[in-house]
Specification:
Length: 126
């Protein structure tokens, strides 16, 4: 069992930056893919970024490439999502999620993830 806790999201202005934290307990991340998904009001939950702990490869949705960076801290068993050049359309509840390694599969859909954090609100004002 993996427990995930997010923090760091609040309010930013367009063009600004925020850093989200995803801390894991229960098990280490070493055999998991860690994803970040978001859900804007009235919209479906969507994939944002993912990190394969074993290979250290990262994956991003096109709309955040070049602006967001997902990374890890092994010692703290924590994943970070650095969000730069924020836009109002980035406003959403952001979720940290995890699924066990399944070959080369990197989850892109919410139903591919087994564990979820509680979510943290990110609001970007124009």
């Amino acid at each position: 069992q993996v427990q995930l806790v997010e923090s760091g999201g609040v309010l930013a202005q367009a063009g600004g930056s925020l850093r989200l934290f995803c801390a894991a307990s229960g098990r280490t991340f070493s055999c998991y893919v860690i994803g970040c998904l978001r859900q804007a009001l009235g919209k479906e939950r969507e994939f944002v970024a993912a990190f394969s702990w074993r290979s250290a490869r990262t994956y991003y949705v096109d709309s955040v490439k070049g602006r967001f960076t997902i990374s890890r801290d092994n010692a703290k068993n924590t994943v970070y999502l650095q969000m730069n050049s924020l836009k109002p359309e980035d406003t959403a509840v952001y979720y940290c999620a995890a699924h066990p390694m399944r070959g080369a599969v990197i989850g892109r859909r919410p139903d591919e993830y087994d564990y979820w954090g509680q979510g943290t609100q990110v609001t970007v004002s124009s």
